[in-house]
TrEMBL record:
Name this polypeptide is given: Glutathione S-transferase
SUPFAM superfamilies hit by this protein: MAPEG domain-like
Keyword Membrane annotated: yes
Species in which this protein is naturally found: Pseudidiomarina aquimaris
Presence of keyword Iron-sulfur: no
Amino acid sequence: MAVELQISMMYAGLLTLLYFALSVAVIRLRWRDRVGIGTGDSKDLEVATRIHANFAEYVPLMLLLLVLMELSGAPVMLLHAMGGLLFVARICHALGLRMSIGPSWARTVGVLGTFIVLLLQAGYLLGYAFGMAV
């Protein structure tokens, strides 16, 4: 009997495409600025690598949490809300940092969206673990 994780797989695929785009942005800047390791003196490359690294720091855990929620039988709408908000938040975070290394509306939306999803996922899974899930 196969376990179907269609919702988690869809968001994993979308987030993988976004990760690929962020990776290509770093590679292009490395070629442009002729920097093999680190960021050299390139502020653009420094920003791009932080966008890429921040994604890599948060998204794998959050995808795992989404899979666990789906395996636990979380409502479809909740799964789409979590996956959709995460996807939008990560796009906003990347755009916000490209707009300005300081505060920006897009970066704020990205950070808040990411943290909201992370906390809701933790809350749902703790509730499920202790028999209080929706």
